Amino acid sequence: AQCFEFPLPCYSSPISFSFINHLVDFSYVGIDAILEQMRRKAMKQGFELNIMVVGQSGLGKSTLMNTLFKSKVSRKSVLATSQEKIPKTIEIKSISHDIEEKGVRMKLTVIDTPGFGDQINNENCWQPIMKFINDQYEAYLQEEININRKKRIPDSRVHCCIYFIPPTGHCLRPLDVEFMKRLSKVVNIVPVIAKADTLTLEERDFFKKKIREELRSNGIDVYPQKEFDEDAEDRMINEKIREMIPFAVVGSDQEYQVNGRRLLGRKTKWGTIEVENIAHCEFAYLRDLLIRTHMQNIKDITSSIHYEMYRVRRLNESNTAVTQANGIPEHHLSAHEM
Amino acid sequence: SSASLLFLSRASLPTQRHQVHRKSVKKGFEFTLMVVGESGLGKSTLINSLFLTDLYPERVIPGAAEKIERTVQIEASTVEIEERGVKLRLTVVDTPGYGDAINSQDCFSTIISYIDDQFERYLHDESGLNRRHIVDNRVHCCFYFISPLGHGLKPLDVQFMKAIHNKVNVVPVIAKADTLTLRERERLKRRILDEIDEHGIKIYHLPDAESDEDEDFKEQTRILKASIPFAVVGSNQQIEAKGKKVRGRLYPWGVVEVENPEHNDFLKLRTMLITHMQDLQEVTQDLHYENFRSDRLKRGGRLSSHGYVLPLSPAYVPVCFQLLPLTDSRAQAVHLDG
After folding, report:
1. Best residue in B38, B61, B102 to probe A by mutation, most A CBs within 10 Å?
2. What pLDDT, in 10s, does the model give residues A173-213?
3. Count of CB pairs separated by less than 8 Å, A with B
């Protein structure tokens, strides 16, 4: 298995040791000490992560979230009733948790979308979701343009939308294409093949290839988007990921004894599926992508690209309204003038 | 091979039934099985597994783009299967496109029309002068595939089954059952049965074994009844498992054996179908067809698609038929004298 690094590199300050060792390096200034300062600040502040999960009922969304964060973070775990009825319309429900690991604090918000894709008529079922995402951008924008702004604007923007594809083994459904086509323009979409333990390895590879083809032919850019690769190194790493998505995942919050170790898995009559075993499913890759390697990048793309696009559009809209009222032709204005 | 398509031999057969049995064996059997369910639930694989054949040699699975354009199709494939001198003319009616569209509101009108058309045709043939070679293309049984991923029936499942339960014998089947642990399977079965009850859906009920049947048969019937809805896995691939070749699915964590009753209900489904083929035909004739017929005749004579006028009451037999030309005005009520 690959070894993924913890997002914040641990540097011990070299300067503090230099006088102890009586070693003075004349070519060394100590600029890299800033990394340590940043790390300390990040640890003090903690950070926010907002993940939305979208998919039909029964695709294991809640279980997967619980598995990802090794705690009961999903809405289902907090529900009083054990049995759930499919809602008649789509609902957007957010649950936030404070998670701490090795002194690092994270405020995780899981946004669930029950009712999506469950009706007989699912036309326009992406609309409430699109609206929610845009509403978060709007809330952030409103705070940003305030005269007296908060020091840290609360970030409720959706950083990542995990889209659950049912494991049919054939190809994407019209609903999948419609949703991802529209939403990939406003949010980072991470498609996953849900409940992948129903596919043999052969079927899985065929399915993934078919999905990638259909994403391509429909012009759907899922995360990590090619156009946002920053440099050659980025491109190399992300290209490898793009060749593997969508990740075929299996979730579980139950532990079983396998070869003397306690592992998260699903026990059947013909074997036990180990969730974190990459020979069984690709959960570990998803976890590493979302949490261990690309979390910051996902947030950066959300704030510097998706949010900025929203902001420009909104500001131009109000500009248009203002200039129309003032009689100034539109083309004189651009985003920079704001 | 150990798989036998024949009626299981019973230790003692009441004489009358035995005679009917012998006569039917000479004539051969006709059976029409309709298969309904969303794409990707393994319907084709299961049908091929059930009858040890490849009904779909040149199958091309359409991509999402094609699916958007398509409405529900009806595709009937007929095979002649002969085993130990018994001929079975099996027609499998597929319904590709069912449940695929974003809006599945109208996806079953085509299916219902098809079922009604077969009744209509039979009614017409039965009312005709030459009734020697009436072909029975009526749908004797409908396997309805339920996704194993959900928490029970979906709204579409409920609506569809209610729309056809008075026209055809509905046998609900839980597809791709290897996606479920044993506990999940039992829970899902219970949930589905509760929902079937709750919504007043009439599924096919296996008749209780008669008192003169042998104990084995009685026990078999009891087990079958207790296992509904059957949770099945299909496959035509031979896998090596525990030193022998089995039909199954190979996963990194183990092999699911299609014909292992501990792994899934495939054998039960096959046994049920084979031992109840006769009963399924009888119920179709005595219940569903008669309902259609009386309903149809009560509505009065009108031009059928063949251009003949159907008698208005079962007692009435026209002395001669008048060949009425099909005109453009469809609402033409014709009354025959005499």
Report:
1. B102
2. 999 999 999 999 999 999 999 999 999 999 999 999 999 99
3. 121
